[in-house]
């Protein structure tokens, strides 16, 4: 799955010469926490609601409302924006975007085309929705967790057991544990009728069933 399919296209942006007041109004209107700064179709920076709050007068100020508005009308976005922006290409995978966000501790990434134009933005919420969709959670699936050794043929062996019972698998995910073993998460159709037999067969082959739950 690629970033281009999961991003928000044509994001609202401001220019670096826009005033703080203009930018703040746009953020409030669209319920944004961050905005991209674009000049001549090129990304030049970004700023967050925290940056706006940082330059806004304290609630304890003696300035009048008119004076506060006048001050923010004079300040430009270029004075508060962050110029070093972490981005992702539109043809990158969602996994790559998630890793970039994780490594850089950011909640969203501007999406850039091959020519450097801003074509979208992808956020942690988009990544989370992708995860939910990929896992098929809304449709209601059984989640079975197994503890397995790291050896060739494990997944083929396990999937054959389910196939023998005519059970369709939606997804299989592995995660290495501190012990060196792997946690294998299988999402599949309802197995209530055959669960005891399947569990016995799995564990007879050394695959420990550690958890089962129906989600969605």
Describe this structure in words.
This protein is α+β, with helices and mostly antiparallel strands and 216 residues long. It folds into two domains: 3-131, CBS-domain; 136-215, ACT domain (Alpha-Beta Plaits). The chain has helices spanning 3-6, 20-30, 49-55, 65-74, 94-104, 124-135, 154-164, 195-204, and strands at residues 8-9, 13-14, 34-39, 42-48, 88-89, 108-112, 118-123, 141-148, 169-176, 182-188, 208-215. The strands form three sheets. A four-stranded mixed beta sheet has the order 1-7-6-5. Strands 9-10-8-11 form a four-stranded antiparallel beta sheet, covered by helices on one side. Strands 2-3-4 form a three-stranded mixed beta sheet. The longest helix has 12 residues, at 124-135. It is elongated. It starts with a helix and ends with a strand.
Count of helical stretches: 8
Q: Would you tell me the overall average pLDDT?
A: 88
CATH class of the largest domain: Alpha Beta
Radius of gyration equals 25 Å
What is the name of the CATH architecture of the largest domain? Roll
Order of strands in the sheet with the most strands?
1-7-6-5
Beta-strand percentage? Answer: 25-35%
Structural class: alpha+beta
Query: What about the largest sheet?
Result: 4 strands, mixed
* Full CATH superfamily name of the largest domain: CBS-domain
- Count structural domains: 2
Name the overall outline.
elongated
Q: Strand tally, please?
A: 11
Q: Give the topology string: H per helix, E per strand.
A: HEEHEEHHEHEEHEHEEHE
Distance between the termini: 22 Å
Low-pLDDT residue spans: none
Helix proportion: 25-40%
Q: What is the CATH T-level topology of the largest domain?
A: CBS-domain
């Amino acid at each position: 799955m690629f970033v281009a399919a999961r991003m928000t296209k044509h994001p609202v942006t401001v220019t670096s010469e826009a005033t703080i007041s203009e930018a703040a109004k746009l953020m409030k209107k669209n319920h944004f926490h961050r905005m991209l700064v674009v000049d001549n179709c090129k990304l030049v920076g970004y700023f967050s609601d925290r940056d706006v709050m940082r330059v806004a007068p304290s609630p304890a100020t003696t300035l009048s409302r008119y004076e506060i508005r006048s001050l923010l009308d004079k300040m430009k976005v270029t004075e508060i924006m962050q110029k070093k922006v972490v981005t992702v290409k539109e043809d990158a995978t969602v996994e790559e975007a998630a890793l970039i966000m994780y490594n850089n501790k950011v909640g969203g990434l501007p999406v850039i085309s091959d020519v450097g134009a801003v074509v979208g933005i992808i956020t942690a919420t988009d990544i989370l929705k992708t995860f939910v969709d990929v896992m098929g959670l809304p449709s209601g699936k059984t989640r079975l967790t197994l503890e397995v050794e790291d050896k060739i043929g494990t997944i083929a062996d396990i999937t054959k057991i389910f196939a023998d019972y005519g059970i369709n698998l939606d997804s299989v995910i592995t995660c290495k544990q501190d012990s060196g073993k792997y946690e294998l998460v299988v999402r599949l159709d309802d197995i209530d009728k055959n669960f005891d037999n399947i569990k016995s067969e799995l564990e007879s082959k050394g695959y420990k069933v550690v958890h089962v739950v129906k989600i969605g």
